[in-house]
Design a protein that fits this description.
Blueprint (H helix, E strand, L loop, with lengths): L8 H65 L1
């Protein structure tokens, strides 16, 4: 016959409490990491949007100058 481990209800609840505590800590850590990643992504996206808007503004100014130069030369 196989050996069975005999534990008291108290030992089982201690183990359950330790496991539960570890899972809660892991969940909290995961939440913090996810929040940090989301914030980093938002900053990255905001920087991209600002750089893109700046480039569009530059292209519009360049095009306006080219159109103005064409009108002057006509």
């Amino acid at each position: 016959m196989g050996k069975t481990r005999s534990t008291s209800h108290h030992e089982d609840s201690d183990v359950d409490a330790i496991v539960n505590d570890a899972l809660v800590k892991q969940y909290v850590t995961f939440e913090k990491m996810l929040d940090a990643q989301q914030k980093a992504f938002q900053v990255c996206l905001q920087s991209f949007v600002e750089a893109n808007n700046k480039r569009v503004d530059e292209l519009v100014r360049e095009h306006a100058r080219e159109v103005a130069d064409l009108r002057i030369s006509l």
